[in-house]
Amino acid sequence: xKINPIFFALVFAIVVMDGCRRPDYGxxxxxxxxxxxxxxxxxxxxxxxxxxxxYLDAGFRGIILYRRFFNQDVNDFIAYDRGCPIxxxxxxxxxxxxxxxxxxxxxxxxxxxxxxxxxxIDNTETPPLFxxxxxxxxxxxxxxx
Length: 145
Known about the structure:
Largest sheet: 6 strands, antiparallel
Helix content: 10-25%
Strand order of the largest sheet: 1-9-8-4-3-2
Number of strands: 9
CATH class: Mainly Beta
CATH topology: Rieske Iron-sulfur Protein
Number of helices: 1
């Protein structure tokens, strides 16, 4: 039996594109974000070192901007919405960075997440933190969805 190359290419494209999707956040509000942060601004001094973070007034509930690496490339920073993945609509549904600078805790159920990758620490079926895309060029961080 001869396989149609167009069919093969279509199936291959669907499989590859499926792997590029963001995690399914269900009904999490997807608000427009287009923020530029100049890292040399004294207000963002914490972002000059690995493990540094700041809260930003953007996104649905605010943004946690975290520095993971010091490679001067796109992977250096990650930005999460401050809304808890499950309790984002509740009054207590804010995420706070803990004193260890590596853990983020939901105010409603004290569920904890790894700030480095946004995954739940206890490996439960809890969805990961809602993230925004970042880029880092010439000392400017661009956060967007």
